[in-house]
Design brief:
The structure holds two protein chains of two kinds. Chain A is of the alpha+beta class. In chain A, about 40% of the residues lie in helices and about 25% in strands. Chain A has 28 helices and 37 strands. In chain A, the strands form nine sheets. In chain A, strands 16-22-23-19-18-17 form a six-stranded mixed β-sheet. Chain A has a six-stranded mixed β-sheet with strand order 29-33-34-32-31-30. Chain A has a five-stranded mixed β-sheet with strand order 8-10-11-13-12, covered by helices on one side. In chain A, a hairpin with a 3-residue loop joins strand 12 and strand 13. Chain B is an alpha/beta fold. Chain B has one domain: Transcription Regulator spoIIAA (2-Layer Sandwich), CATH 3.30.750.24. A five-stranded mixed β-sheet of chain B has the order 1-2-3-4-5, covered by helices on one side. In chain B, a hairpin with a 4-residue loop joins strand 1 and strand 2. Chain B is globular, with a radius of gyration of 13 Å. At the A-B interface, helix 4, helix 5, helix 7, helix 8 and strand 4 of A face helix 1, helix 2 and helix 3 of B.
């Protein structure tokens, strides 16, 4: 590399080159898709980008980068000129080279040690088939005179610049390769591991024909460059020293016009040129073609002009600088908050101060938002990788897959966008590998042979949602469940208690994999676990749902930025903590009087019953090893709370004035529970106080605190107080929560409760209590009574020994209880009476009879177990104690029906 | 039909004589392949295509055999090409610059 090259200029070159590579990848995909119909501008854009990288690489003397981009440029030139048709095989080579360029840019200073021979060979192979010479040649011969060779000038210069000595080596295919236990490929790979191969050829003339060829030991000539001395080079190549001869280096240097690097004077280095300018070496193709994009060509000038125009609108800024500005903006926000708090109500005491403070407040907010905006990048930066990945995988797996992207413009903080790359790549690769079926299978299912992976990003509730959906085979919960049991992740009993959605989400468990065998693509069982871990590290969460045969959807919910996050401020033991809002599901206020019904115990641990779910409870004070504080309801004084159980309502000391019942109802004994989300699970955290939701500026933890897994950072409140930010996952781990056991237990208890409710419902009766005679109590179920009629004794008419009343224009027979069972009669002379009209189920006909009684006592719900009675009579259900009286339960329908049946 | 390693499938058509060895071109298969090839090209007048679609490896003898076949075709004045070449074999052919002598076509992925 040129010694004068300033680090920042190289850094700019790398950044610019990366942008070129990112921008041309979609263009290359379009070229492959459209073939000959590809728009000329698309091809030119790709061509210009590669040419620009080559120019910069030449200027900074990054040899590998230059050689590879030069070869790519030559191939693209063939495409541009219509001499080469784009095929998937050619694009494989171009994409492979593109990836290699990217790898070189990732560590530009070591780019010359990034192997790229394979890519160069492949590109050269394309050009060979096109009959294009890849560069001009120089003559070489061995020392002391020997046969002359034509070597690629570019390759020779590159080797010489790296201080290599060039050798002429001869290896015999049988003696030096086969007999050494090597394949030709292994032999060549070994050679390439210690140097560079400028040329190699087999002496084909040594073979006559097929007849006697196998007995012939063919010599292979290698023109080989390495930094090793002759003896070591022979040893490395596993050849006898006599078969390795150095080339005449002085003659070669003259021929190649390369100065001795050892004698090079840094002051004589080439003049600095702008990035993208003319490369140091621009070999003229031997085939007589022009340089792919000669300096000053119209298209080049046009590109430069566009670049200049764009340059006036944008400015490249180091991320580090933005990060510093972001931190300073955070400090400024804190300063503003502190100032506002300190000035408080006195702001109106000084004339004009209020306006100044309002202005300061406004400007600070806008500046903070503006600086945050500078770090925002579109999620499309990650999404744009996937068409290429899917394209490569489709070819590898012989599947037809397309990607549809929406919401690429949605912006998130740069750090999140970068950290999202791995999780999203895992998901996308899984979609292509496992979810999307091959075309034949899709056709047999009546699906489009081309599977689709949809990527969508959108804002919702101050967060960014990313949805990855495919229309593949879906995930069968039965198979996932069976696999999870086989791998020992859950027990069969636990599986039986899980919902299909919960089972599907087991794919996020560490070590889970559905793949039968490990492939290059997937199957090691680390992918989806990494997805969840990384997403949660970013303060987000991920979940999956799937429909067998229709496809799978993975949803990621993430914060916009990691630097400033909305958080709930909570208090415990007179200390405050921040909980990121993304982790907060809800707040539950457990009244002191409800503790006994809402807090249960499972395996000795306290759990909160919330809408038929059992959530593990963590007392924040206990988890953080802080002394629990109890506020005395009488004195209001704080003291250490030594109670072990939440249900324990006793005060901390003796001599309390409040009775137990009063304490249970006192609001100071209420509990505040913050329900937090951890992956698919939830748990409750008991805190003393809930404050407000604040936008907090996240400060990284000091290295001294890195081992405290329950904190993810720290922040400074408006009053200058430094508080810790709680990490939901870390807190859950610290408390040793076991969710699977609890879910199973929760379901068991819910089922038991349901049974109990059903049993209770079977015992619960709504009845009408009445008397016929003094001292004897009766009850009839309300649902069997149509009406209660109040009548006067005079309204009863007698026909023989039967009694009737007029009921809706008809004669309704009356039954006296003492007439059908052994009970006391209604007291004679009772003027006001009642008639129970039984309900006639499923019929419009009038009731068969009414039951005459003397007094209605009440209509109540009673929970009773009826006992048999010794008295005999129609419609007698049994007896039970109701309101401290033995009460006979009657079925009025059966009673009336029975009496009517015996009536004439 | 060629079924075991070392067997040679021979297909004659108007365009070419296609020779498809079964499996790799290695020491254990070259001898029988050579016999088959000798018989197949005896009297051949059109171009010969060596189809390496089922070969994943080639050793020194395999390269020698390929070159022997090429030379025999050259002697007869008929064309010779190699098709269906796996990436590894293609790499060897390219590194040895065999593309200078006859067309080599990579296997479709």
């Amino acid at each position: 590399m040129s010694s004068f090259a300033d680090e920042s200029i190289i850094s700019d070159f790398v950044a610019e080159s990366r942008e070129h590579l990112s921008s041309i990848e979609p263009d290359l995909l379009a070229m492959e898709q459209d073939g000959a119909a590809a728009v000329g501008e698309v091809i030119n854009r790709v061509f210009r980008a590669i040419h620009s990288i080559k120019g910069g690489a030449g200027f900074f003397a990054f040899e590998n980068l230059k050689r590879l981009s030069h070869a790519m440029e030559s191939v693209l030139m063939q495409v541009r000129d219509g001499k080469l048709s784009v095929t998937p095989a050619i694009m494989d080579v171009v994409f492979g080279a593109l990836d290699r360029l990217r790898a070189m840019l990732d560590d530009i200073q070591s780019s010359d040690s990034v192997p790229c021979e394979k890519e160069l060979e492949a590109l050269k192979g394309i050009l060979d088939r096109q009959g294009v010479a890849t560069g001009k040649t120089v003559k070489a011969k061995t020392k002391g005179g020997g046969p002359l060779f034509d070597l690629d000038a570019e390759g020779v210069r590159s080797a010489l610049r790296r201080g290599m000595t060039l050798y002429h080596a001869i290896a015999y295919l049988h003696r030096d390769v086969r007999d050494q236990g090597l394949t030709p490929l292994a032999f060549l790979n070994n050679a390439l591991s210690v140097g560079t191969c400028l040329d190699a050829f087999i002496d084909v003339m040594a073979i006559a024909d097929l007849e006697g060829c196998l007995e012939q030991d063919l010599p292979v000539t290698l023109l080989f460059g390495t930094v090793l001395e002759p003896e070591l080079a022979a040893l490395a190549l596993k050849l006898p020293p006599s078969q390795l001869k150095p080339l005449d280096m002085d003659a070669l240097k003259k021929s190649a016009k390369v100065a001795d690097p050892k004698k090079a004077d840094p002051l004589q280095a080439p003049e600095p040129q702008p990035v993208g300018g003319t490369p140091e070496f621009s070999p003229v193709p031997a085939a007589g073609g022009a340089d792919p994009a000669p300096e000053g060509s119209p298209e080049e000038k046009s590109a430069s002009k566009a670049s200049r125009e764009a340059g006036s609108e944008t400015l490249r800024v180091r991320v580090e600088l933005l990060t510093n500005l972001m931190n300073l903006a955070g400090e400024l926000v804190l300063g503003r908050n502190q100032l506002m708090l300190a000035v408080g109500d006195r702001r109106r005491d000084i004339p004009g101060l209020n306006g100044i403070l309002q202005n300061l407040n406004q400007v600070t907010t806008e500046m903070q938002e503006g600086i945050m905006q500078t770090r925002m990048q579109p999620i499309g930066m990650v999404f744009s990788r996937f068409p290429r990945i899917i394209r490569d995988m489709s070819r590898q797996l012989a599947k037809q897959i397309e990607v549809q992207i929406q919401g690429a413009e949605v912006e998130m903080d740069k750090s999140i966008v970068e950290l999202l790359t791995d999780p999203l790549t895992h998901i996308i690769r899984n979609c292509a590998d496992h979810a999307i079926e091959d075309p034949a299978e899709r056709r047999s299912k009546g699906k489009n042979p081309t599977g689709t992976i949809y990527l969508d990003a959108y804002h919702e509730g101050g967060q960014v949602n990313i949805v990855i959906r495919d229309d593949g085979r879906g995930i069968d919960p039965k198979k996932v469940g069976a696999k999870a049991v086989t791998k020992g992740l859950i027990t069969q009993a636990q599986l039986a208690e899980m919902s299909e959605r919960e089972i599907v989400n087991l794919v996020f468990a560490p070590g889970f994999s559905m793949a039968e065998k490990i492939s290059d693509i997937s199957g090691r069982g680390v992918g989806m676990d990494v997805v969840r871990t990384n997403t949660e590290k970013l303060g987000g969460h991920v979940e999956m749902e799937s429909v067998v045969g229709q496809g799978t959807t993975v949803r990621l919910q993430l914060p916009l930025t990691l630097a400033i996050i909305p958080s709930m401020i909570v208090g415990v033991s007179n200390q405050r903590f921040a909980i990121p809002q993304v982790n907060v599901v809800e707040f539950v206020w457990v009244k002191a009087s409800e503790v006994r019904t809402k807090v249960e115990r499972v395996q000795g641990a306290e759990v909160l019953r919330l809408r038929d779910q059992l959530l593990p409870l963590v007392r924040l004070a206990d988890a953080l090893d802080l002394p629990r504080i109890y506020v005395d309801p009488d004195s209001g004084e704080a003291a250490e709370d030594r109670r072990q159980s939440l249900a324990d309502r006793r005060g901390p000391g003796e001599g309390k004035s409040l009775r137990a019942e009063d304490r249970r109802k006192d609001w100071r004994s209420d509990y505040n529970v913050v329900v937090l989300r951890q992956g698919p699970n939830q748990f409750g955290v008991i805190v003393d106080e809930l404050f407000d939701i604040e936008e907090i500026v996240v400060k990284p933890l000091s290295s001294f605190l890195h081992d405290t897994k329950c904190f993810s950072g720290a922040t400074i409140l408006g009053d200058g107080r430094v508080i810790m930010i709680l990490d939901a996952s870390g807190l859950s781990n610290l408390a040793g929560l076991h969710f699977t056991d609890l879910q199973a237990e929760g379901k068991k208890r819910a089922e038991k409760e349901l049974e109990a409710r059903a049993l209770k419902a079977s015992r619960l009766r709504s009845v009408i209590l009445f008397k016929a005679a003094v001292g004897e109590h009766f009850a009839v179920p309300q649902d069997k009574v149509q009406r209660l009629e109040r009548i006067q004794a005079g309204a009863i008419e007698r026909v023989g020994d039967r009694e009737y009343i007029d009921y809706r224009g008809e004669g309704l027979p009356l039954i006296r209880l003492d007439g059908v069972m052994e009970v006391s009669p209604i007291a004679p002379g009772t003027e006001e009476l009642y008639v129970i009209i039984p309900k006639v189920l499923g019929s419009e006909s009038p009731p068969p009879a009414g039951i005459l009684i003397s007094t209605i006592l009440d209509a109540v719900d009673v929970e009773v177990d009826l006992k048999p009675v010794e008295i005999k009579g129609p419609g007698l259900l049994g007896s039970a104690m109701v309101q401290d009286h033995l009460t006979l339960f009657l079925d009025p329908v059966a009673l009336a029906g029975s009496a009517a049946g015996v009536a004439p | 039909m060629a079924t075991k390693p070392g067997a040679l499938k021979v297909q004659k058509s108007e365009e070419a004589l296609r020779l498809s060895p079964r499996g790799d071109l290695v020491a254990s298969t070259v001898e029988s392949l050579r016999s088959g090839m000798l018989k197949a090209i005896d009297g051949a007048q059109g171009p010969v295509v060596l189809d390496l679609g089922t070969a994943r490896q080639i050793d020194s003898l395999g390269i020698t055999l390929t070159l022997g076949l090429f030379k025999s075709c050259q002697k007869k004045g008929i064309g010779f090409s190699v098709e269906g070449v796996s990436p590894d074999i293609l790499r060897v052919f390219r590194l040895f610059n065999l593309t200078r002598f006859f067309p080599i076509e990579e296997a479709a992925k």
